[in-house]
């Protein structure tokens, strides 16, 4: 995992914080073939709070299985920072979210600017889902994590707005 502002650097650090145990005690590493043969066991371990790392040595890739509580806890560590600015000459507010590669929107009030920004974010998240292979090229790795957090939390306009306003907690 990458290091982002205010984030734990990797899942092992998160497990250490969450379970107050060394990550080795909570981490299981298995090959793709072993994971296929023992998928139920891999899921049971993930559901019990262990991190299951599945390695594909042929293509030098890894995937991780974790329970939803761990994933939600990890996502809740990721905070959004929304910034408002007022242009008194133009009588508009600008709102931006730096974690999403400085997305911004304008409106006559703070609420209307935020509503416009939320609509833009939802549209971008839906585009990210629909055209993932192309879309991931246009977002920083950090922004992709934040987009996945929003997608995971649900793309209901009120939910996204509250997630942004609450700093990031679902």
The ordered string of helix (H) and strand (E) elements is HEHHEEHEEEHHHH
Radius of gyration: 19 Å
Assembly context of the chains: single chain
Distance between the termini: 21 Å
Number of helices: 8
Structural class: alpha+beta
**If you average the pLDDT, what whole number results?**
84
The beta-strand count equals 6
Taken as a percent bin, the fraction of beta residues is: 15-25%
Q: What share of residues is helical?
A: 40-55%
What would the keywords be for this entry?
170 residues; alpha+beta; three-stranded mixed beta sheet; three-stranded antiparallel beta sheet; 8 helices; 6 strands; disordered N terminus
Model description:
The chain is an alpha+beta fold. The chain has helices at residues 11-19, 32-37, 39-47, 68-77, 110-130, 132-135, 141-153, 157-165, and strands at 27-31, 51-56, 61-65, 82-87, 92-97, 103-107. It has eight helices and six strands, in the order αβααββαβββαααα. Strands 1-2-3 form a three-stranded mixed sheet, sandwiched between helices. A hairpin with a 4-residue loop joins β4 and β5. The two termini are 21 Å apart.
Helix-strand layout with pairing:
Layout: H1 11-19, E1 27-31, H2 32-37, H3 39-47, E2 51-56, E3 61-65, H4 68-77, E4 82-87, E5 92-97, E6 103-107, H5 110-130, H6 132-135, H7 141-153, H8 157-165
Parallel strand pairs: 1-2
Antiparallel strand pairs: 2-3, 4-5, 5-6
